[in-house]
Amino acid sequence: MHPPHADSLQWILEVDTKDIAYIVGLFEAYDGLAVVRTLDPARGHIELMIAPDFEEDVAGVVDALSKEIPVQILSQ
């Protein structure tokens, strides 16, 4: 049996809770780049599930996003 999300990379981010919907919408606009899942809405913890081929692209989006809103990468 495979571990969960064996075919993707997981990044855990901490963001302001008011920005979660914005981030979800942003990644939905980049169709297929990453799927966003809210892990703990009270703490602003979200998970990005990334296809391995798109890790560099997601890093670029997260970097640009961090210049606009507070984003902390908790794990990659």
Automatic annotation (TrEMBL):
<protein>
    <recommendedName>
        <fullName>DUF4911 domain-containing protein</fullName>
    </recommendedName>
</protein>
<dbReference type="Pfam" id="PF16256">
    <property type="entry name" value="DUF4911"/>
</dbReference>
<dbReference type="InterPro" id="IPR032587">
    <property type="entry name" value="DUF4911"/>
</dbReference>
